[in-house]
Amino acid sequence: MRKIESLSYIAALSSLSCAFAVVYPAPAVADETVVIGHVAPLTGPVAQLGKDNENGARLAVEEINAKGLVIGGQKVVLQLDGEDDGADPRTATQVAQKLVDEKVVAVVGHMESGTSIPASKIYSDAGITMITPSATNPTLTRQGFKNVFRLVATDAQQGPALANYASEKLKIKTVAIVDDATAYGQGLADEFAKAAKNLGIQVLSRDTTNDKAVDFHAILTKIKSERPDAIMYGGLDATGGPFAKQSAQLGLQAKILSGDGVCSDRLEALAGSAVDRVVCSQPGASPEKMPGGAAFKAKYQKRFGHAMEIYAPFTYDAVYIVVDAMRRVNSTDPAKILAATPATDYRGVTGETKFDEKGDLRNGVISIFDYQNGKKTFVDQVTM
Predict the structure, then answer these.
(1) Which of 69, 84, 140, 340 is 20 to 30 A off residue 380, Cα-Cα?
(2) E runs forming strands in the chain
(3) pTM (2 d.p.)
């Protein structure tokens, strides 16, 4: 009798166990590693900006992994493949092909226009989503590719915004323009020049240097004889800082106008006291004006032990935008991620992200900064 009762008890437990198996679905059974690429110059004169971009993306990946991500019933672990393009267009295409061969699901980058434009075709041919956090040359999204997206306003917006501020607030009447011959520097200078002429600002001269230059005395000596109210420099801080410093050493009193490439927190170290004559524009809201800016700055400081530079909030949002697309299509398939990205409506640290038909950001903003006692200071914001 006891044996029969025991068998009955065991059978009952088995039935109960089966019942529970039916009621509670099995959890995600295995990890899928999903690789997101990030590309920026991690070596060379603007490496600090490239590393800042990578840090923003890495912070997002670490947060998402810590919270846990399940796509298609499977636990997904994100991995960031950070690559260095050295700010060189040829290296950029080699790195792009490497990421394609490694089967990344999307790429955050590249940082600069001159590297983003050639790399974009490789990603397009492979059907991989490319989201640049900082490349501003309008050509990037005018190539007809369906995979390219941008999280900041373009130079076609930044140049006019800077020119308008120069005309209306600084009362600039004459300007000399210099660019570093890169896709970014030349593109920004071109857009500024067009807008300046339309505003009645006289363009006295247009000169070109290069992004490796260290001595600007010949150009600046010529410009000094022209006596402009301002000099517009299209380039990055590595050359823009010394350019401003040497202009002061030669006794020029002109304001130095520039874009986001120059508009960094380390500009004082590069320009010396001449930094206080610099006025610069930056696509995107200032961190002080971003919905999640203050919280992000604190998280970044805690994680990396130093303050952020410029575009880390945008690379951070870019990773979340890729994951948002995964969630909406419930898949990590690169083709499905790409198909979902144009319909993005994501609210992140930098604000609301929606893309237009070219992949550009809708309702972008331009921030204007100057330097006061060497400190970068927000002065105005223009909604485009």
Answers:
(1) 140
(2) 31-40, 69-71, 74-84, 106-109, 129-132, 148-150, 174-179, 202-208, 230-234, 255-258, 278-283, 346-348, 351-353, 365-372, 375-383
(3) 0.86
Domain count within the chain = 2
Helix (H, G, I), strand (E, B) or coil at 276: helix
Cα–Cα dist 361/341, whole Å: 12
The answer to whether residues 248 and 203 belong to one domain is yes
Domain match, 256 and 371 both = yes
Bridge pairing between strands 375-383 and 365-372: antiparallel
Instruction: Identify whether residues 234 and 332 lie together within a single domain.
Output: no
* Token pair belonging to 189: 């200078």
* Same-domain status, 168 and 277: yes
Long-range Cβ contacts of 301-308 (<8 Å, 24+ apart): 303/55, 303/59, 303/62, 304/55, 304/59, 307/265, 308/52, 308/55, 308/56
Reading the block at residue 11, the tokens are 């059978």
Phi, psi of 382 (to 5 degrees): -120, 125
Amino acid (1-letter code) at residue 339? A
Same domain, residue pair 311 and 262: no
Q: Which of the 8 DSSP states describes residue 244?
A: H
Domain contains 208: yes
* pLDDT band per the 50, 70, 90 thresholds, residue 317: very high
User: What is the C-alpha to C-alpha distance for residues 101 and 116, in angstroms, rounded to an integer?
Assistant: 18
Instruction: Classify the phi-psi angles of 23: left when phi > 0, otherwise alpha if psi is within -120 to 50, otherwise beta.
Output: alpha
pLDDT digits (tens, 9 = 90+) for 182-235: 999 999 999 999 999 999 999 999 999 999 999 999 999 999 999 999 999 999
> Which tens digits make up the pLDDT trace of 254-289?
999 999 999 998 999 999 999 999 999 999 999 989
Q: How far is CA 75 from CA 21, 210, 320, in A?
A: 20, 48, 17
What is the span of the domain harbouring residue 195?
A: 156-283+367-383
Are 103 and 41 contained in the same domain?
A: yes
In a domain, 188, yes or no: yes
Question: Residue 135's closest CA among 40, 221, 251?
Answer: 40
